[in-house]
Design a protein that fits this description.
With 389 residues, this protein is an alpha/beta fold. The chain has 2 domains: 32-182 and 308-386, Rossmann fold (3-Layer(aba) Sandwich); 209-303. Helix content is 43%, strand content 18%. The strands form 2 sheets. The protein has an 8-stranded mixed β-sheet with strand order 1-2-4-3-5-6-9-10, sandwiched between helices. The chain has a two-stranded antiparallel ribbon with strand order 7-8. Helix 12 (334-342) links the parallel strand 9 and strand 10. Helix 1 (7-40) crosses helix 13 (368-386) and helix 7 (209-218) packs across helix 11 (286-303). The two termini are 36 Å apart.
Length: 389
């Protein structure tokens, strides 16, 4: 084994050390800039609206860029989830601005169908492709290889999209926030509040918004419920109301709307509506809810096989970073571990499970000691994420 050499070897070692130090310093600086923007809301950014051509459909997008700094800018494309505010979701806007403040260009395309709460998985690749095409016309950005971020429903879809032939070589890495892996386990949580990982059972009050959306999309595909389109439509209306209001769907402010929607249904269909949307603070019957979760998951898999994106995960070849909120009332954090295990071990980092951000809103900050520990872990994960592009 060669231990040492001449001056040329020493120069090479010095150069390697210098490069590593510069990379670490650059990553630390990006992380500090991101954090400062996230915490204070202060930044110097240029925000403009652009229009994408998604296979002949014109859809809006938001492009955020720092006003100053080196050019061309490495670039991120960020996919929102199944949410009424779409790219205007407050948590997403805050994240986008902080990401741009770190010295990157960020494009956030709208997926109008996802804003209408349609679980349309087939729109992921066309949306990313349209985003890349639009970026080619933007000065001062480097879109040859972009970072891809997916939130919630968009997280596993973004990971799967990286394997698509049309995007091959164009995606440098993927970040998934708050995504799900197993539809049935996620639905069981959304009906019962129970989830499990590594032999440990956990319970957290579920946000009914998730089960309303899945019911709106797939209830009539469940055997025995084919004629309950009115129930599915009522669940969709409830989800619209909660999404537009920007509050947790379990709040009692929706009880009057529940009563009105229920009264308009045929009497024989009301028990199904009550299972999905009982009056606050009631929760669904545990046994009946579990049965519906299993049936809904089977219907969703049959109608939309790509809803569970893990079938594409074996072909993932780019780095993937997973993050999830510890107190996520919509998708339990145990799903992040299942996503990790469904991916090739050599590409995935995480998951980082933290109380420093939530699915729909900011979680309460943990105590001093736990907060310090989580902050250190989150900053470490954030540094890796920001180093993707």
């Amino acid at each position: 084994m060669r231990i040492s050499g001449g001056s040329g070897d020493a120069a090479g070692v010095a150069s390697t050390v210098s490069d590593s130090f510069l990379k670490m310093s650059s990553s630390a600086l990006r992380t500090l800039r991101y954090t400062a923007s996230w915490l204070t809301g202060r930044d110097s950014l240029h925000v403009r609206e652009v229009v994408l051509d998604r296979d002949g459909v014109r859809v809006p997008a938001t492009l955020v860029m720092p006003r100053e700094g080196p050019r061309p800018l490495p670039t991120w494309v960020v996919l929102h989830g199944i949410t009424r505010p779409g790219r205007a979701h407050p948590q997403l806007v805050r994240f986008t601005r902080a990401l741009a403040a770190s010295g990157r260009a960020v494009l956030v395309p709208e997926v109008p169908e996802w804003r209408e709460l349609s679980l349309a998985t087939e729109l992921t690749v066309p949306t990313v492709r349209a985003s890349l095409t639009a970026l080619e016309e933007v000065q001062d950005v480097d879109c040859r290889s972009v970072g891809l971020v997916g939130f919630s429903f968009g997280a596993p879809q973004a990971i799967a999209a990286s394997t698509h032939a049309e995007l091959s070589g164009r995606v440098a890495g993927v970040v998934g926030f708050g995504g799900f892996c197993d539809l049935e386990r996620t639905l069981h949580f959304q009906f019962t509040g129970d989830h499990e990982w590594d032999g440990c059972r956990h319970r957290l009050r579920p946000d009914p918004y998730g089960r309303w959306i899945v019911g709106a999309n797939y209830l009539t595909a469940v055997p025995g419920h084919e004629d309950e389109a009115a129930v599915a439509d009522s669940l969709l209306r409830l989800a619209w109301m909660a999404g537009d209001a920007g509050v947790m769907a379990w709040e009692p402010i929706f009880d009057n709307a529940k009563a009105a929607l229920r009264d308009a249904l045929p009497p024989g269909h009301r028990p199904v509506f009550d299972l999905f949307a009982p009056v606050s603070p009631q929760e669904p019957d545990h046994e009946t809810g579990e049965a519906m979760a299993t049936a809904l998951a089977a219907a969703g898999r049959r109608v939309e096989p790509s809803l569970e994106a893990t079938q594409a995960f074996g072909a993932v070849r780019v780095p993937v970073h997973l993050l999830h909120g510890r107190q996520d009332h919509l998708i339990p954090y145990s799903e992040a571990f299942r996503l990790r295990d469904a991916l090739p071990r050599d590409v995935v980092t995480g998951p980082t499970v933290t109380s420093l951000f939530g699915h729909s809103s900011q979680d309460p900050f943990p105590g001093l000691v736990e907060g310090a520990r989580e902050t250190a872990a989150f900053f470490k994960a954030l540094s890796r994420v920001l180093g993707l592009v």
